[in-house]
Design brief:
about 325 residues; alpha+beta; Elongation Factor Tu (Ef-tu), domain 3; 4 domains; 6-stranded antiparallel barrel; 14 strands; about 25% strand
Length: about 325
């Protein structure tokens, strides 16, 4: 009986190894799970690093968004509007106060360089010229008399009839007479200059933009603060074959504009007409209030369709 009970309580050797095999399986499963989790974590970190650092020369969505598109040569990089202006507008003013005696042009008339356009009343200056010429004639007579006296005294001094003192006095009188003659000649030249200034001529070939006075009006070189004082200019003229477009370019667009840049000009009044041009001037100072910089585009070969103060569209072209 006892032996049978001992046999029932005995553990077979095959049963002793079963728990050890199960334990090893569990350990293996845990190791595989940890390895898989580590691999997944490493893969995610690698992907994030690759997404944040883009090698040079590769395409990325963010890079494409920030990089400016390349524009073909001759294509517009900026379009802006401005006003057609004369490159030079000249207001012809008198050199002194006077009364307009005659004005020979009207608004829109063509004028040439040196053409007489206005005459001022020159009666006063003609009288001053006549007076100066009379003084010059008297001075010239005084020189002639002093010359005769000196020649006579010098001849007598050589014969020891006159003293050297008298000869020196005669020579000094002659020098003083010549100085008086030069002074009188200067007064004549000044009077002639004033007479010449009463004749106003056009300084350029161009067109009369404005007629600012009429005959019998008083004009003067500059005003002294009086709002209703005399006119300070007679005419405004300009060369209509020398035109520009004046544009205020926004400061955000200045990087697209440079000197001598080729441009295409289209007047708003004639949208089918285009003219070539170039950037001739960029202002050295911006407008703080408007946040713009003034740019002037020179128009090549303008025709009669282009009128100052009309609006024009300008395309700034790429190199």
């Amino acid at each position: 009986m006892d032996s049978e009970k001992l046999k029932q309580l005995r553990i077979e050797s095959s049963d002793k190894h079963r728990p050890r095999g199960s334990f090893r399986v569990i350990i293996a499963v845990v190791i595989l799970a940890l390895f898989f989790a580590g691999y997944v974590a490493w893969s995610g970190r690698s992907d994030r690093s690759t997404a944040s650092v883009t090698p040079a020369g590769t395409n990325s969505t963010e890079g494409d968004r920030s990089a400016p598109a390349r524009v073909a040569a001759g294509s517009p990089v900026l379009t802006a509007s401005g006003y057609i202006i004369n490159r030079e507008r000249i207001e012809i003013s008198p050199r002194f106060m006077g009364v307009v005696k005659w004005i020979g042009v009207h608004k829109g008339d063509a004028v040439t360089n040196g053409q007489i356009v206005v005459r001022l009343d020159d009666a006063e200056y003609q009288a001053q010229l006549a007076q100066a010429e009379g003084k010059l004639a008297g001075a010239q007579a005084g020189v002639a008399k002093a010359q005769l006296v000196y020649d006579r005294v010098a001849d007598l001094a050589r014969k020891n009839i006159e003293t050297r003192q008298n000869e020196d006095d005669a020579r000094l009188d002659l020098d003083a007479a010549r100085a008086g003659e030069r002074e009188a000649a200067g007064a004549v030249a000044l009077a002639k200059t004033y007479v010449d200034w009463t004749v106003i001529r056009s300084p350029i070939d161009g067109v009369v933009l404005e007629k600012l006075v009429n005959a019998n009006e008083l004009v003067m070189p500059q005003s002294f603060g009086a709002a209703n004082g005399p006119s300070t200019a007679l005419l405004a003229v300009a060369d209509t074959s020398d035109l520009q477009v004046e544009i205020d370019v926004n400061e955000a667009d200045l990087s697209r504009v440079f000197l001598n840049q080729k441009c295409r000009v289209s007047p708003e009044a004639y949208p089918d007409k285009t003219y070539s041009g170039h950037v001739a001037e960029i202002a050295p100072e911006a407008s703080r209030q408007k946040g713009t910089l003034q740019v002037k585009v020179q128009i090549h070969a303008p025709d009669q369709l282009l009128t100052p103060e009309l609006t024009a569209k300008v395309d700034f072209l790429a190199k």
